[in-house]
# Entry
Amino acid sequence: MRRKLVLFGAGERGAKFLCMNFPHEVEAIFDNYKCGKFYGIEIEKPRYISNIFIVVACFHYLEIRNQLISLGYCEFEDFIPEQIYGKKIAVAYGNCHAEIVRQYLGRNRDFSKEYGFYPFPMIQAMKDDFDYEQILSHCNLFIDQAIRDANRYGKKYASSALSDCLSQTCLRVCIPNLYGLPRCFFPQLGGGGTGFLPSGEVNIMKWYREGWTKEEMMDKMLEGGIYSEEYIISLWEEFREKLLIREREWDIKISDYIFEHYKTKKLFTNPNHITSELAREISIRTLKYLGYKAEYPYIIPAMDDLEVFIYKDVKKALGLEYDEIYIRNYARYLLMEERDVDIEEYINQCYQSCAFYLSTQNGATDLNV
# Structure
């Protein structure tokens, strides 16, 4: 007997699904908050009904997933997210680098005709009670970053643990994991900080405590003489060695691109995040590895809102040729003032961050307090 098709979600994503997937086939609408009709179809409160199949078109799928399971439905048998409706199931797993690769792949026409990405959380968003085994057993394509067993979140979230849940027919592709590697470009970010954090710009924090003005800070950054060439070169050699070792685990190689272009293109926003430029190249190589044509004349805003300036000492030691009049050109517009930031605004924001941090420390003068 044919199962009745039900759409969960009378919102923007639900409307898009209806327009793209034969609305006459949807016979009912579930929604937790809305009532009335949606595109002429009566909206109902979610409840258990036998012999139906539910397509969930909501931004918070995992919450709806738990709700449907509690009502007695079984994922994949009774409901799925709209992203994988009529498609093979792909899962992208890792840190925020994997998330932007997922966005690039999802915008490739040929790839998206065959695969849909399950809204699988990145490692930093995983929860201890998340039962990923059932999801991964249905996966057809697993794209991951070879997350180590000794990662900060625990062995349960390592790639080895997740890959054990995959079926024998699932295709696994390991993409680059560059998190924490390129310290050579950002020696000022002590502890691998990402910007205007107390653990970030250690020089500006030090100068702030010593009573320097913002103008004096900017002059010093532009003048140089903070780091020796020998120190920067040692960090660069460390970066090269670690990159080549880590790359052995990856199906998608990227060291050749980095070594060829690092002098003319900014490839990292800080020690923990790649630029949109590098994310695009990784995505192109991943698609080609999978047998798809890959051309992206555009940039998807990624982690560039975390971009920091590279010091003059670093540029001189490593022979970097590009100018940085503005950073965050491809920011995600989360904060409008963080797009097209010049060095004066950058120092101003760091300065304000230092002031705020120290004001919350009750007069503490040690960052380790």
Q: What stands out?
A: The first helix runs from residue 12 to 20. The CA atoms of residues 229 and 316 lie 8 Å apart.
